[in-house]
Amino acid sequence: MKLVPEAYPFVGTGLVVTAAAWVAVAQAGGALWTSAAIAASVLTVFMLWFFRDPVRTAPQEAGLVVAPGEGRVVDIKEVHEPSFLRATARRISIFLSVFDVHVQRAPVSGTVEHRVHKPGKFAVAWLEKASEDNEQASLGITTPHGRVLVRQIAGLVARRIVTDPAQGDRVERGQRIGIIRFGSRVDLFVPLDWELTCGVGDRARVGATPLARVPVRGERPKGRA
User: Fold this and answer.
1) pTM assigned to the model
2) pLDDT beyond 70 at 160
3) DSSP state string for 127-172
4) Residue 209, helix vs strand vs coil
5) Residue 206: which of 4, 3, 64, 55 has the closest Cα?
6) Is 59 within 8 Å of 210 (Cβ atoms)?
7) Residues classed as catalytic
């Protein structure tokens, strides 16, 4: 199983502590050491699961916008996005539980022209106010069809957001762009005339599930909510 580089300090520490606890069980025995060894083992396995980075193949069809995060679509709303799109956009919010993959991937291919980190609170990530109040990092990507914004939002447990690309970098659809540690939310902002291919309650697989599609010339935009 492939792990993200951010996993190594956590998993390494967990393995050392687990090994030491089981050595203590072998040498001293006792319910206390056994309980500690079992707890350390479970925590280490959880770290391995949490920091997994499964291989995902982005669909090849032109014009698709894939999920930047893995989890459940909890909200779809028209909002004004003033920082990068500078227009009314459709926001698709994905909630990531601690059991979901926490790597984020580029929803489209394009050039990063906006990269901003904003300190904030650590409220429950599925709440509406989390999009404005919580610690977050925004990555704006310019494509030939329009602008897209991905916003990584920390949650109640999350305390660290990692964003990989720098301003000016070229990213490809499905490419890793970052990770949020321990429960979070990812918002995707797309132009209103892009067709939605998802709805509230849908499960999204990061880098693989299409959430929207660039409209073909002459088509009327469609949407689901």
Assistant:
1) 0.80
2) yes
3) STTHHHHB-EEEEEEEETTEEEEEEEEE-SS---EEE-PPTT-EE-
4) coil
5) 55
6) yes
7) 184
